[in-house]
Specification:
Blueprint: H1 3-17, E1 25-29, E2 41-47, E3 65-71, E4 74-80, H2 91-94, H3 96-103, E5 108-117, E6 127-135, H4 163-175, E7 180-187, H5 196-205, E8 209-211, H6 215-223, E9 227-237, H7 248-272
Parallel strand pairs: 1-4, 1-5, 5-9, 6-7, 7-8
Antiparallel strand pairs: 2-3, 3-4, 5-8, 6-9
Helix pairs in contact: 1-3, 4-7
Bound molecules: hypoxanthine.
Hypoxanthine binds next to strand 5, strand 8 and strand 9.
Length: about 280
């Protein structure tokens, strides 16, 4: 079946469950940050496995459902659990939900993730507004025949993460007395964490954080001209910075520790998301 036909069926199913709600902002909640969805009012919850053609999430800590409802005066569609390349999905599968969002009329996207902190002046628990990214790996969600109905074959990536939204997020953070960093996120495929040499390389290349998600989604969103913003929760110092091994528990623990602040920031960003970026 053609991509557009699949997307139409996914959209039709989701719309049939929405009881007239018109989601405006898509939000993807990263590792350990899924509780944020509990704040959504008057929520409709849709399991991924009920949506025709949707992939299904396999990672512990990722729930695998859409939560759609009100948040800070906007209607949001929240993905509780995302699809990662390292799980074995193709990049095209990873970005399928973003395309579904666009089909549902969503033009604004807030991507969140847990990431390793590469910038040695920062510390675990810091929140970083993503200003740009580096995708070193060769694969790309737009590889193959271009879905012309969604966007152009060759498309601009000079401002993937909307500058104005970054400024708005900074202001929202300031008003909430939440300190935020701004920096560059570098994608590694995972599921292995990086080596110490890879982290040194990432730093020299200009990265402030390393992670295993977000970039494919941001590329697909750019292709469809969605207004995108990204926030990383820096859950651990990246490999080799401290004299200790990395583990997934630390990622989850830090996520747990900062989830209140993180949720407050997400809410602040949603509240101040301007009409002209919806
Ligand atoms: N590396 C890659 N992905 C991550 C990390 C990390 O150190 N921490 C959380 N996600």
């Amino acid at each position: 079946m053609e991509l557009m036909e699949k997307l139409s069926q996914s959209k039709a199913y989701i719309e049939s469950r929405l009881e007239g709600r018109k989601p405006q902002i898509g939000i993807i909640l990263g590792s350990g940050l899924g509780d944020m969805a509990d704040a959504i009012e008057d929520a409709v919850i849709i399991d991924y496995h009920d949506i025709p053609h949707f992939p299904v999430s396999t990672v512990p800590g990722h729930k695998g459902r859409l939560v759609i409802g009100g948040l800070e005066g906007k209607t949001v569609l929240c993905m509780q659990g995302r699809f990662h390349y390292y799980e074995g999905y193709s990049m095209e599968e990873v970005v399928y939900p973003i395309r579904t969002m666009k089909m549902l009329g969503i033009n604004a996207l807030l991507l969140t993730n847990a990431a390793g902190c590469v910038n040695t002046a920062w510390k675990p628990g810091d929140l970083m507004l993503i200003t740009d990214h580096i995708k070193l790996i060769a694969d790309n969600p737009l590889r193959g025949r271009n879905p012309d109905d969604l966007g152009e074959r060759f498309f601009d990536m000079t401002q993937v993460y909307d500058k104005e939204l970054v400024a708005i997020a900074e202001k929202a953070a300031g008003e909430l007395s939440i300190s935020v960093r701004k920096g560059v996120y570098m994608l590694f495929t995972g599921p292995s964490f990086e080596t110490a040499a890879e982290v040194r390389f990432a730093r020299i290349a200009g990265a402030d954080a390393v992670g295993m998600s977000t970039v494919p989604e941001a590329i697909a969103a750019s292709h469809m001209r969605m207004k995108t913003m990204g926030i990383s929760c820096l859950t651990n110092m990246a490999a080799g910075i401290l004299d200790q091994p990395l583990n997934h528990e630390e990622v989850l623990e830090t996520g747990e520790r900062v989830k209140k602040t993180f949720s407050a920031l997400v809410r602040g960003v949603v509240a101040s998301w301007p009409e002209n970026k919806l």
